[in-house]
Model the fold of this input.
Amino acid sequence: MKSSQSTESAGFTRMAAAGIKLHPSCRARQERFGLLFYDCRGPRLLFAATGTLIPADFFGTIRRRDEFPAGVSESQKMALNKFVTQLLEKGFLHEQ
Amino acid sequence: MSNKYVEMGMRSPVNLTWEVTLACNLRCSHCLSSSGEKACNELTTAEALDLVEQLHTAGVFQVNFGGGEPFIRPDFEEILAACHSHGIMTCISTNGTLFTPELVARLSRNRLVAIQVSMDGAKRETCDAIRGAGVFDAAIAAVKLLAATKIPTSINTVLTAQNADEIPAMHEMASSLGVSLRVSRFRPSGRGADNWESLRPSPAQLLAFSDWLSSSGDVRTGDSFFSLTSQERQGLGLNLCGAAKLTCCVSPTGHMYPCAFLQTDRFEAGDLRQNSFQEIWDGSEIYESFRNLRIHSCEECQRFDQCHGGCPAVAWHLKNDINGGDPECLERCVTSIADNRLAEAA
Ligand code: SF4
Ligand code: SF4
Done:
């Protein structure tokens, strides 16, 4: 759920967004190629060739925008950052 | 839609249709499963709940319940609750005639359920001619009850020759009731096959619908019209047949098929009383044949990338050829209209 403090300033709302999480209408699971995302509102699918880099349940809990599983290299982090941006833009992830 | 990944094979379906019973209090003339009487040997409650466990283990995201009328099954809410307890999303296709405020209140306690109420016309007489006397009013009453809750609700209409002109009015009706409109394709299966000639939309009606759809982005069609959709709607849904790749069907008796419109012995993939869900998904030769299905006759078509040959179920029912290409795709509608004009002019 978005911050319910709608009377607060935009700045406060930004600070209040603790992180990102899988949207309640979405699910993710591991496939051979990586993660498969499903959005029942479409329905829409998103195929992410992430291999085993991110576990399917990773976004099931609130994560910081720059938080990734341990052991991910700097170059992988850059790629994952772009990927997270795409998931946010497409509505599979949402800010909390 | 990234076909490359679909072709690698999914570990389980993304969603599936589960027809929980053949029993229905209506006798709609287009019913895909010829519903009416309960089938002999339908899955027991224990078997149904065991199937839910298997779907959870397999990682299935969503179950689309149909029938028959699902709410006729006394244990249907128990089956739903079992899905929800595992986070499985559910969508129920219902005729809406059995809804009460109490039932809607119980359903609305859960955020994982969506409901499609079937209606077949914006006018009472159009709808009731297909579904039976009094059904239009009962369905509207159900939609009103549902629209007052947070349950995502849609009116689901099967496009037929009789209601094709009323689709825009149905869209307005759905909007005025605060729900969305979903239009499904009429396919020649079950009683729909018996009444095919009288109910099938003409090529001109299909083309007019395709045009209307392209400017009605909020209308959902599931996988019904990818063989007819214009460029504008690409990306709004699937543009290929997902049977045995992304979806499948479980019958009331626990038999598995590629999709709800192919529930015949020829296409039986397995029996859940003999094998597990995962064994059938992984090992069925029928499913393997659908995963390898190539509609070669369509590959030269300029629209091939947009529809990949269309719906194999319609090709099977109309041409007895699963590889034959969709006989009612956009290209074939255009050709058929042009041929008719030429014949008339000659
Ligand atoms: S179409 Fe639906 S409501 Fe009509 S007879 Fe079939 S199952 Fe029953
Ligand atoms: S066979 Fe036709 S109805 Fe069945 S899943 Fe494929 S496109 Fe859909």
